Amino acid sequence: MRILSIQLISIVFISLLFSSALAAKKNRYEYEDCLLEHLDHAKLDVASRYIAEACEENYGSGRSKVIFSDERKYNECLLDHMVGVESVDAVIRIRRACERKYR
Q1: Given pLDDT bands bounded at 50, 70 and 90, which one contains residue 91?
Q2: Range of the domain at 45
Q3: Residue 21 pLDDT level (bands cut at 50, 70, 90)
Q4: How many structural domains is the chain composed of?
Q5: Distance CA 63, CA 34 (A)
Q6: Rounded to an integer, what is the distance from CA 71 to the centroid of its chain?
Q7: CA atoms lying within 13 Å on the CB side of residue 92
Q8: What's 64's DSSP letter?
């Protein structure tokens, strides 16, 4: 009976490890897809940095914190509006508008 319970615990533990590894891989693919989708037409380094940070916060595998809905919406706002911007002033204004709207 004791051996059976140890085997059962081992199976559950291995299953949890496997599922967390799959989730981490999925998050990594989402992060990479975010970068590929949004950096493709980035024209300014400062906009690229905001885009990369937003992708990392929403999809990065190193997330140790829970991201709140407003923070996710703020990041999505940046991702929606930073692509293709050609003015540093516009980047700053977009960031501020997203902050006022979602933070």
Answers
A1: very high
A2: 27-102
A3: very low
A4: 1
A5: 15
A6: 11
A7: 3
A8: -
